[in-house]
Specification:
Blueprint lengths: L4 E4 L5 H12 L3 E6 L3 H13 L4 E5 L8 H16 L4 E6 L14 H22 L3 E10 L12 H21 L5 E7 L10 H4 L1 H10 L8 H13 L9 E4 L6
Parallel strand pairs: 1-2, 1-4, 2-3, 4-5, 5-6, 6-7
Length: about 250
């Protein structure tokens, strides 16, 4: 069993849940956050315990930057109570929301909601937690294949992910002296409940996505969870500031 600890935002479902379980299989302890569905988070916590790792859950709204100092204090308390330490090894900025709307129909409120979660929240949560990340640690941000290829209806969402990729490179540059690697994982279209579950539940959309990928299918959450866990714990620790797309070769 490893003594390493990962914090995963939005770890109660989808890609965050998959990442948490893959890390647990590697013996990594997990703190996962949820925004509204505590029951889901508790279910993931129970699954992690069955895999032989340990886990804690904390509520966090990543759009509410004013709550970050309090969250950091609660995180320190959990770390001390569960593992007798005040630091983490890995931060996975996973929490997100999706809005699918044409450019001309996207409202300022919708734009701000995306910005607050995907850019402002990631920027200031990482800033707040940075003193708690061990030297030599790892940070992963979540981008999207949509930051490389374009599909109608995602102008605002993809713009946020483009900003996240730029932020990732700057974090890699500034945190390099501490040995902290920062990389962005860019998933392709994945069968989750994200964006209303359209890729998972709409057979026509799923078929279309499969036809655009080199590997002939839409992605599964474990495709991303496994990649994230490998990036954090594998033997590619000298890589930083990179965008790693995990999309099955979508729109090559």
């Amino acid at each position: 069993m490893s003594d390493k600890i990962a914090l995963i935002t939005g770890g109660n479902r989808g890609l965050g849940r998959s990442t948490a379980l893959h890390l647990a299989r590697k013996g990594i302890h997990v703190v996962l956050t949820y925004r509204t569905n505590e029951a889901e988070a508790q279910e993931v916590q129970a699954e992690i315990l069955k895999l032989g790792a340990s886990a804690a859950i904390l509520r966090l709204d990543t759009a509410d930057t004013a709550s970050f100092p309090d969250f950091a204090e609660r995180l320190r308390d959990v770390l001390v109570r569960h593992w007798g330490r005040k630091s983490i090894d890995f931060l996975v900025n996973n929490a997100g929301i999706g809005i699918h709307k044409p450019f001309m129909e996207t409202t300022e409120d919708e734009f701000d909601a995306l910005m607050n979660v995907h850019v402002k929240g990631v920027f200031f949560l990482t800033q707040t937690l940075l003193p708690m990340i061990r030297d030599g640690g790892r940070i992963v941000t979540l981008s999207s294949g949509l930051a490389r290829f374009s599909l109608p209806g995602y102008a605002a969402y993809a713009s946020m992910k483009g900003a996240v990729e730029v932020l990732t490179r700057y974090l890699a540059k500034e945190l390099g002296p501490r040995g902290i690697a920062v990389n962005a994982v860019a998933p392709g279209a994945i069968e989750t409940d994200f964006g209303g579950g359209v890729v998972r539940d709409n057979a026509e959309v799923n078929w279309y996505i499969a036809g655009t990928t080199a590997m002939g299918r839409a992605g599964q959450p474990d495709d991303i969870g496994g990649a994230m866990a490998t990036l954090l714990t594998g033997e590619i620790q000298w890589m930083t500031g990179q965008r790693i797309e995990v999309s099955g070769g979508q729109n090559l």
